[in-house]
Each structure stands twice: as structure tokens, then as C-alpha cells.
Amino acid sequence: MRTIRLGKTGITVPQNAFGALPIQRVSEEEAVSLLRNAYDGGMRFFDTARAYSDSEIKVGKAFEGMREKVFISSNTQATTREKFEEDLNTTLTNLKTDYLDIYQLHCVARCYTEEDDIFQCLVDAKQQGKIRHIGITAHKIGVAEDIVKSGLYETLQFPFSYLASERDIALVNSCKEADMGFIAMKGLSGGLLTDSKACMAFMSQYDALPIWGIQRQSELDEWLSFFENEVTMTDDMKAVIEKDREELLGEFCRGCGYCMPCTADIMINQCARMSQMIRRAPSQNWLTDFWQKEMLKIDSCVECGICRTRCPYELDIPNLLKKNLKDYKEILAGKSV
Ligand code: SF4
Ligand code: SF4
User: Fold this and answer.
1) Which atom of ligand 2 is nearest to the CA of 320?
2) Cα–ligand 1 centroid distance for 73 (angstroms)
3) CA distance 188 to 112
4) Lower CB density within 10 Å: C or N end of the chain?
């Protein structure tokens, strides 16, 4: 397994890390077991966030008494000093620690600079020893490029998978040139990619630390198996990736949910990518009465446009939903597969 040095932070860990968003959805006992098994299997870097309900508490419980053996990053969505301090103190309490290895501004809409008090909050927290390194996460490529150019942050977290564009790959390379750590979120592109080996092979070509979102022991086992059997890019892997890229590239929804809630109660993060999900997972799961009702809600879209303003990928959501519904109805009618 390759190790990744996260730029000037000096943090050096195996290129196989744990994204702790999905452990919100399992019991504390299951989450703690998953996290400890991840550590026992070789993972050393764990990313959580104030916004992931009880994820930090679970991470704190799992690594109590062994804090210095792992690297932990967390995120805040704060935009004011008061909220920043409240979030950071809560995070440290939840994680049962007195420092974070990396503290990140979470999913920012623009690059915050020295002129913004929220950036100064990070600098102050670092001086106080509460955080060791300053990081940031973004979903929009233009914002991410501004962040790298600013030279103010030690790490950048950004979506990166084998559906990446040339511009995304250039971003990863520019982080390397700037000696900035690159943390790759959404390595499975929000569940659209299902071949973990191909995802790992792709990642192994870059100086990127993937934080795989893990909810089940079976998923963890797949990632841990790469410690034993190292994966590199081969012609077979390239063929899998090429096929998926042909099928999936273009206007596609990553399932992140940032566009929600919808005025018409449409489950956008599933319905806007139904055409892909239904062809990539057992289709029966998506043809149940429940999903038929959810898909039909698309007809009640009032075109308010709120979702469009929130989507970090600037998708034309109302039209994307309509296309998915049309396709879904054709599948139901047996006119399409
Ligand atoms: S435009 Fe349609 S899909 Fe988007 S929030 Fe409004 S009602 Fe929901
Ligand atoms: S439409 Fe955009 S914001 Fe909404 S789930 Fe998909 S990618 Fe995320």
C-alpha cells in the first residue's frame, strides 16, 4: 500500500482512509466496531464533521485512549467566530481530545482569505494548539482552484473519482506542486461506482488520500483487502473505467443531497440519478411501490428553482428529474431496459 504525505502538514498515512459520514446511520456499537476494525486493518486517517450528527461521538468513543495513534480531521460550516468556537469546542468534546489534526471549513461557496474573520478563526485555533493544520473542503472546481492559488490552506478536500475531468486531475496535480495535501471525497461518486478495485487502482495513480465512506463491515473488508493485495492500474482496470466513463459521464447527479429539501418534497438525490442507479444495482429494488410513488412526485415540481441554486455541480435539476422520470416510465412500461 502506498503512503500519502498530505503536503506541508507532514501527515503521512496509507492511501486508504475512512470517511465517517455513513456511520451516522448505524448504532454506536456497530460504528465503534467498524472504526476499530479499520484501525486494526491498517487505516490511520479518519474524517468526520460537525454536520454528521453523532459521527464525531462515535469516532471519539472508538479511539479513546489511543488518540495519538490516529489522525482525525473534522469540518465546520460556521461562518461567524461565535459559531466557529462553539463548533470546535463541541467537536473536541465529542472526539474526547484536545486537538484536531486538520480542521476544515466545510463545503465553502468561495475561498475565504486573510480578510475574512472565519479564516482568522482557523489561524487563532492553530495558535492555541486546538488544531494542528488548516484545511478546507469544496465541491466547485472554480472555488477549489482559487483555494489552491490562495496558498492559505494546508489541505484541500474535493470530490475525486475515476469520473474526474481533466480539470479535476489538474487540480490534484496543482495541489502537489503547491505542497498542499489533497483529500479525495466521493471516491465512489456517491454510490454510482461499484468496482472498489477499479476505484483504488485509479486513486493509486495520484497523490490523493481517499476517504471511503464506510457503513458496513463488508464494505470495510473490501477496502482493507487492498492492504494485503495491492492494486495498481492494469489494462483490465482501464477497460472497466473506460466503460463506466462512457456510460456515466456528462450531466449526472452525485447524490450529495445539498439541493434539498425540495419545495415539492421530491427526493432529488435519488430521483435525479434513477436512470443510472436502476441499471447499476438490482433494478427490482428501484421498482417497488415506494420508489414508484417517489418518482411520480417529480410531476409536482413547481419549478421554483431553489434546488438549482444549491447544487454545487450547477445541474439543471428540474429538467434532469423530468428526463429520469420519462426513462423510468419507459422502464416500467417495458419499453426500455
Ligand atoms: S425546482 Fe422542482 S425539484 Fe427543484 S426545489 Fe423546486 S419543486 Fe423541488
Ligand atoms: S442534484 Fe446536485 S446537489 Fe442535488 S443531489 Fe444531485 S449533485 Fe447533489
Assistant:
1) 1
2) 34
3) 28
4) C
Pocket of ligand 2 (CB under 6 A): 253-259, 268-269, 272, 311, 313, 315, 317
Quick one: CA torsion of 49, 55, 61, 62, rounded to 10 degrees? -90
Whole-number Å distance between alpha carbons of 17 and 97: 20
Q: Which residue from 265, 257, 270, 272 is spatially nearest to 310, judged by alpha carbons?
A: 257
Cell 461518486 sits at which residue? 189
Residue type, 293: K
Interval 238-267: pLDDT, tens: 999 998 888 777 678 888 888 999 999 999
Domains of the chain, start order:
3-241 (3.20.20.100), 268-332 (no CATH)
> Which atom number of ligand 2 is nearest to the Cα of residue 311?
3
Dist. CA 267 → ligand 1 center (Å): 10
pTM: 0.84
Angstrom distance (rounded) from CA 191 to CA 248: 12
Pair type for strands 3-5 and 100-105:
unpaired
Question: What is the identity of the amino acid at 121?
Answer: C
